[in-house]
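COURSE: Structural Biology Practicum
ASSIGNMENT: Worksheet 4, Part C
STUDENT ID: 0417
INSTRUCTIONS: Below are two proteins. For each, the amino acid sequence is given first, followed by its C-alpha cell string. Answer the questions at the end about the second protein only.

PROTEIN I
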Amino acid sequence: MQRAKITHTKHLINSQKQQLLVSFFVPLILMTSYFIYRKMAPFGSSSLLTVDLGQQYVDLFAYFRHTILHDPSAFFYSFSKAIGGDMMGTWAYYLMSPFNFILLFFPGKTITTGIFIITVLKYAFAGLTFAILLQKLYAKASWLIPGLATAYALMGFTIANQLNLIWLDVPILLPLIVLGIEQIFRTGKIRWFVLWLTLMLIINYYMAYMICIFSVLYFIYAFSAHDVSGKKGFQAVKRFIGGALLSGGLASWLLMPTFYILTQSKVQYTETSVKFKFDYFPFKMLSKLLPGTFNFEQMPSGLPNIFVGALCLAGFILYFTSRQIKLRERLTAAVISAFLFLSLCFQPLNLFWHAMQFPWWYPYRFSFLVCFWIIFLTARYLFTNPAFSAKSLLLTAGIFIIGFGYLWLNLKSFKSYVTQDQFIIGALFATLGLLALLLLKQRPKAAWLVTILIILDVFVNACWSLNNLSFVSQAEFGNYTTELDKTIGKIQKKDTGFYRIGTTYMRTKDDAMQAAFNGGSHFSSTFETQIPNFMQKIGQPDGDGFVTYSNGTLITDSLLNMKYWSKNIDANQLGSSVTSSSNPTMPPLTYRPDLASYQLVGQDSLTQTYKNPYALSIGFGASELVKSFDGSKLDPMQYQGELYSRLAGKKTSNLFKAQNFNEVIFQNINQTTKLTGSVLKKNSLSKPGIVTFKFTPPTNGAYYLTFGQELNPDNATFTIDGKTLTQYSPYRNTVVVNFANHSKGKTITLKIQLKKMSLWLENFTLYQLNQTEFTNLQSKLKAAPLKVTHYNSHQITGNITVGKNNRFLMTTIPYGKGWHVTVDGRTAKTTKVADTFVGVQLTKGTHTVKFTYWPPYLFSGLILSLLCLISSIGGLLWKHRQTPKKI
C-alpha cells in the first residue's frame, strides 16, 4: 500500500513537471515558428520592429547596452535625451526588465536578434508562471493546464502589445503575485507576495499600478473564496496591506525619484475633468472575442484586446453556474467581473485604470487583467469537479448564439477589423469548444485533446492578428544603424570634448540614444515638458513627449553647442524630386542650406560631416541681462534674437529682419498683397491652386521662413526650385524653416500647392539674419568659454575666466532640481535662465566649476528601501529563531 502511494506521488510529480515544461515550450515553439515563417531576423530579411518597438524602444535598448557596458553614470542622466534630461523615470518605465541583459550580447544591428529572443521568452515564461499558479492552487490539476497556460500566454493583450515589449513582463509576474496573495490565506506568509510585487514595481511602475488595483480586487475575491472571518480575516487584511506597503518601501529607491520626474512630465497631462459616459456601445466589445481582430487601425483608438479563445469564454460563463463553488465566491466574482468589463467601456473607470490619463495610442492597457480573470475563473471551474450539467451547457450555448447573432447583424460596423471569414472561424471554434466540454464530461482523460483545441484557437488568433501588421526590414534598420554608428564614431574619435551633434537625416527621434551621442531630439513617455516648451519657442517641432531638433538656425546651433552636423548625401538635401519614390538609406529629415556656413571635415559614400565654427561651449560667460529675459510673448525669430543678444549684453536685438519676396505669382488663387496671415482660396475646385514666391538674396547670409501649424504637408505641398522641401511633420506650433544661404544673386523659387480649397498662411514670414551682428555677438560669447576638463553623463567639470561684464555663467544644461554646482569647491546657487537652463553667478576671475546631477529623492528612496530591507531580514531571522527546532 505504501509502495503504491509512493509510486502515485512520483507519477504525479513527473506529470506536473511535464505540464510545466509543455506550458513553457508550447508558446515558445509556436511563436518562434511563426516568426521564422515571417522571416524575422536572424532567420530572414524582416525584423520584429514595428511602431513604438521600432521607433522608440530599440533605441532605448541600445542605450541600455551602452550604459551597462560603457557608461554606468548614464543611469542617472543623459545628454542623449534631447539636450539633456533625468533618466531614472526612463529606466523605471522602459528598461528595468531583467530580460534586457540578453541584449548585452547583441551589438549594433544585431540587437534585433536579441529582441527576437526576449520576445519569445516572454511568451514562454508567461505560460510557465500561469501553469505554476494553477498547479499550486489545484492539486488534482490535469493536462488542461498547458492549454490554459498557452491561452494566457497568447491572449489578445499579449499579441496586440507584442510591439510594446516593455509591458510583457506583466503577464509573467501577475500569476506569481496572485499566488503570493493566495499564500497569505493558505500559509499566513507574505514573503512571496512582497517579492513579486516589489519586482513588478521596479520593472514597470505603470503596469504595476494596474496590478496593485487588481490585487485589491483579487484579495476581496480570495477573502470570499477562503471564507475567512473574524480574527483570521483581520490578520489577512493586515498582512496584505503590510505586504503592499513593504513592497512599495523596498522599491522606493526607484519609485521616489521616478514620481518626481513624473510631476515634471506625464502628471502635467492628467485629466482634471471626467465625463461620465460610455466610450462605445458595450456590446461592440464582443467583436474582439473573434480571432484576428487586431490591426494597425486598432492601435490608436480601437476596442480592448480581450481574446482568450472560445473554450475559456465558455468556462468563464459556466463558472457562475457551478454549484460546486460557493455562492458567496461566485457573487463576489460576478461583482468584480462587472467592474472589470464596465471599466473597458465606461470612461471614468477607464481613466482610473490609466492613472487619470488617456493613453497615447494602445487604449485599454489593463485588458491583460480581464484576460487573466476570464482564464483564471475557467480554470477554477474546470479544476473543482465540474458537473457539466446539460442545463448550464445549454445556457452557455444560448449566450454564444445571442452573441454571434448580434455580431452577424452588425458585421458591417466592424468591417475595418472583422471579416466574414473571421466570424465563421470564430463560430467554428465556439462550437468545438462546447463540444469539447461535452467530451470532458464523458471522458475526463481526454484533457490533452481539449488542450490541443485551446492551443489551436489562440494560435490562429495570434497568426491572424500579426499577419495584419507590417514590420521594418532588417536591412532598413541595420544599414542605417551601421552608417550612423560609423559616422558618429569617427567624430567622437577625432574630438573627445563635450559637444552636441545634429543630423539632417533621422530614423527615429532617439537616434542619439541608439548611437550614444549628445543630440537634440527625443521621444519618450517620461519626457519633462520643460524641453519641448523651449524647443517650441525657438521654432522646433514639438509634441507631447517629443521634440525634433530639425529646424535649427545659425543662432540656435551656436547657442546649443551643436558643434558638428552630419548631412546625408544619398538623397538631395531638399529631398527627392516630386515624382521620385526613392527610399534612401539615410532618410532625409530637414533642409539645411545653413551648413554652407560650416566647415566640411569628413565624408564617406553616404554622409558628410560639418564642423560649426560658431558653436559655443556647454557653458560660457554671459551678461547678467539674461536673468530677466522673458520670451513668453515672442515669436521664434524674436525669441532667438532677444535671447542671444541679451546673453551678449544687448537689451534689444537686430539679428533678424523681415524681408519681402521679389515676386509672387498666383495660379487659380485669389490674389492678396498681404501674405502673412492671409487665407488663400482656390478660384476653381477642379484646377490646381498654386502660389509661387520668388526671392533673390542680396547677400550670402542666411534666410529663414516661419511656417505656422497650418502650413503642413497635409494641407499643401512645398517645393524649392522644383525639389520637395523636406521638413519634419507634424508640428503643432510655428517652426523655422531654412530657406537660403550663400545664394547671393541667385533667384530661389518657393512653390506652395494647395491640397484643399483654402490655406491659411499662418505666421508665414521671410527673415534675413544680420550676419555681421551675429558674428560680433558670437565673438563676445565665445570670449569666456567653460573649458571642460572632465565629464561623464551626470557630471561636468571645467575652468572659466570671466570679467566684469560676463561674470554670469550661462550653460545649456537643462535646469533641474537634481543639479548641484560647486565653484572652487564651494556650493553655488543656480539660476533658471529662460525657464530652461542652469545659470551660475560668478565673481571676476578664474574659477573651477563642477556640475553634478543626482536624481531628486534618490537618497531618500535609498534610505527607505534600505530600512525596509533590514527590517524584512530582521523579521525573517526573528521568526526563524522563534520556530521550534525538531528533535
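PROTEIN II
(use this one for the questions)
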Amino acid sequence: MKKLILIILLLASVHVFAQDVRISGTVKDADGNPVSNANVNVKNKNVGTTTNSSGLFTLHAKNLRLPFTIVISGIGYEQQEVQITSASQTVNASLPVKTTMLNEVVTSATRVSQSSLQSPVSVEKMGQRAIKENPSFTFYDGLQSLKGMEAVTSSLTYKQVNTRGFNSTGNSRFLQLVDGVDNQTPGLNFSVGNLFGASDLDIESAEVIPGAASALYGPVAFNGLLSIKTKDPFKYQGLAVQLKTGINHVGETGSSAKSLSDFALRYAKSFNNRFAFKLNASYLTGTDWYANDYTDISASTPVGQRGPNNPGRDALNIYGDEVSKPLPGIGLVSRTGYEEKDLMNYDVYSLKLNGALHYKINNDIEAIYQYNYGRGTASYTGSSRFDLNNFVLQTHRLELKGSNFFVRSYVVGENSHDSYNTRSLAQFINRDWVQDLNGNVVSPADADATWFNRYSAAFNGTVNGVTPNSATAARTFADQGRFLPGTAAFDKAKDASIHNYGLSGAGVFSNSKFYHTDGQYDFTKAIKVFELLAGGSFRKYSMFTNGSLFDDKTSKIKINEYGTFLQAGKKLLDDNLKLTASIRYDKNENFKGSFTPRFSAVYTVAQTHNFRASYQTGFRNPTPVDQFIHLNVGPITILGGAPKNSADLNVYQNSFTSASANAFQAAVGTAIAGGTPPPTAIAQNKDILIKSNVPYIKPEQQKAFELGYKSLINDKLLVDVNYYYSSYTNFILNTVVLNPQSPVLGADGKVNPAAAGDLGAGNFHLYQLYTNATDKVSAQGASMGLTYLLSRGYIAGANGTLSVFNLGTANINNIAQYNTPKWSTNATFGNPNVSKGFGFNVAWHWQSAFDWYGTFNGVRPGRINAYSMVDAQINKKLPRANTTIKLGGSNIFNKYISQAYGSPAVGAIYYVALVFDSPLK
C-alpha cells in the first residue's frame, strides 16, 4: 500500500500543459436571486469552492489543464456543468429549482458513486434537504420514516435502528459508519445510536442498505448498513448555530412536563482552497423517558395469580424483587424491590465535540485528520436496564484520499466511567440493611436468607405485635430498616455499589479500544474494459475490563481480524444491462475464514425503468464478549466460546448436558427415596447422562436473494419495489453444561461411574457456554415506496414493508429473536416553500403488534402493541438573516408507546428551533 501511495503521488506531480487558473462568477436562481453556499467544483478533481451570500465565487487552482469542466450545485437546485476554456474565465450560472431529489446519487451500494435508480441492491437515502425539513426532534429520530427501517427507543439520548428483522436494543448485526468510521463502542460491540457521532448541523446525508452488506463491508453489516456523511469544510463554510428548546413528559401521570434543549454550533473555513478546518460542538440535555411498567412477570407464579398483591411479584421495571424463594406453608415470596426511577439517572445528556483538518496535497489528493469526543448519559435495555452514565467515546481518524482511492486509519476508545446495572444495584442495596430477629444488621452474604426468615416468622405468628397470616404485615416487618430512596443512607449505598465493579458491585467497567485500517482503489480508468474495485481492512481489538468481565487483570484481551474484497462490473446490451460481482474474504484469528460473495444484475428499460436482481451473503463474527467473557457468578461461570478462552478448563470436551443431568438427578432422588442406597442409585441411572457435544463458537451466516424495480416516471413519480428471501444458520446462543471432576466417559466409551458419582456428590461446576445453533430459519419480505411531486412544490410520499419470519422445524430457544412487526408503513407530506418563506412537513408512522423476546424478560415474550405516531413541523425562512425558525413536535398526539418490552414508553416532544446558517467568504 505504501508503494501504491508513492506511485499516486508521483503521477499527481506530472502535469502536461497545465497552468494556473483563476475563474470567477455569479450563481443565481431562475428568478435572478443569488444562490448562497452553492458548490463550484472541478469535475473529477479535488478542487472547488462555494458562493458567498451574494452568489459570488472565485476559484483559484494551480496545474489545471484546459479545457476542463466545473460542476455547480446547490441544495434544492438542478446541477449545472460549465466548460472552462480560459484561465481567467467569468461564469454566470443560473440554477433551476428542483423541488426534490428523486434520483439521488448514492455511494454505499457499490462503494462508488452512482444513480440510486441503477443501484444493484435496495438503498435508501436521506439527503440534506430531507434532513433540514425533518419534523422529528433530531435527524436520527427521522430515520424511522425511511422504507424498511426499524427503530427502538431505550432512552431520550439512545435509539437503535435496524433493517430486515432480528432487531434488538443493542444491535451488533447492523453497521453504522460516520465518515467511514465504525461508530460502535468496543465493549458494547454495537453503536449507541447517535449518542455519539455527528451533530445535526454537520450531517450532509445518510444512506441505508437494508439486508446483508458483508460482501463489501465485512462482518458487522449482517443486517445492513447506515452510512452517515458529514459536511466537507471546503464545500460548507461559515458559521451555523442551532438553538432548540422543548418539553416532554406532557400529560404523564405523576409527573409534570420537563424541559429539554439542544444546542449545536458549526464553524468551517478554507484558506487558498488548500487548507480547511471545521469545528463542531453540540449539547443535548433533558429528562429521560420513565420506564414504569409494573406488570407482574413472575415466571414462577400462574398468570391468574399475578398482580400487585402477589407476594412473589416480579414487576417489569422494579428491580430487586426478582430475588424470590418458596417458603414452606406460605408459597413464593419475593423481596421488596426499588422502582427504576430511584435507581436510574434520568438527567441525560449528549455532548459531541468534533474537529477536522483538511489539506489538499494537490488537485487529486487530500489528507484529513479528524477527532471526535463524545460523552453522555443514556438508559440501555439489555439483560437488565443499564445506566450508561458519563460514558465516553473518542475517535481519531487519519485519511488520505483521491478521486479513485482512499486509505483510512482510526482508533476508537471508550471509558465507561460511572455506568452500572440497575438490577444488580437494587439487589446490592437490598443486602446492605437487613436485620436479624434481634435487630442486628447482618452481612450482605446473609441478607437475603435473613430477610426470608423474618418474613416467615412474621407470617407464621411468631413475632409479637405482627398480624399473622398477613402478607402485607409480614413484608412490613421484614422490611424494617430498609433504605428509602432519597435518604442519605440510600444514596451512600447506591454510590458505593456503582463504583464497585465485577461480582461485588453494580459498576460496569471497560477501558477498551479497537484500531482499524481500511482502503480501496478503483482500477476502472486504467482498465477501461470493465469496472474493477479492490479494497481491504485490518482491525485489532484491545479489550480491558480489569477482570470485571474478562479474565484480563494481568493481560489484555487482543483480537486481530482482517478482510479483503474485489468487485467487478460490466455493462452489456448497449449499456442497458449492468452485471456486478463482488467477493470478500474475512479472517478472525479465532475462527476459520469466511467468503461472502454478491452477484447482481440491473436491466434498464426505456432509460428510467430499472429491474434488479441480486444474490447476497452475510456473516457476523462473534463479538469480543461472545468470545472471551469469563465471569464466575457463583454456582455458574459464563464462558465465551473462543478456544483459547477455555484452554485450561476442559469444559467443551468434558461435560454433561444440563437436561440429562437434571433427569439423572431426579431419577437418583426417586430411587433413594424408595430405599435404594445412593451408590447403587447412581450406578443404576448413570446411563441417563449424555455427554455434551458443544462446538466452539463460529460466525453466523446468511444467504439472501432480492428482486427489485425502481423507476422515475415523468420526472414526477418515483417508484421503488423489492422482495427478498433470506436464510440463516449458526445463530449464536448459550447452553448450560455440567463439568464433573472426573472424565465423562470411561475407556469403554460409556458414562464413567466416577463422573456420575461427582454429580451425586456435588463435585461439579456449571458453565454457560457460548456456541452456535445448528437450526436453520428463514425470513422474507417486500416493500414498496412512492414519492410524488405535486404542483406548487408539494411533495407526497408513502411506503410500506411486509416482514415474515419462518421458524420451520427450528427450536425457538436456539434462534435469535426476530422482534419485527409484520407490517410497517410511513407517509410524508410537505412543502419547503408554501408562500413567503413558510414551509411545513408531516410524517406518519404505523406498525402492527408483535411479541418482543429479549434477555431483559428472560427471553419470554412481551407484547408490543400496534401504534401510530405523527411528527410535524412548520418553519419560516428569513433569507436576509440566514435564519430559519421551526416549530414542531415528535409524536404530536402524545400517545405513549413502548417499542421494546421493558423499555420506557415514549410520549410527545414539542419544540421550537432557531437555526442560523451563514456561508463565509
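ANSWER KEY EXCERPT:
Q1: The longest helix spans residues 444-459.
Q2: Confidence is low (pLDDT under 50) at residues 4-16.
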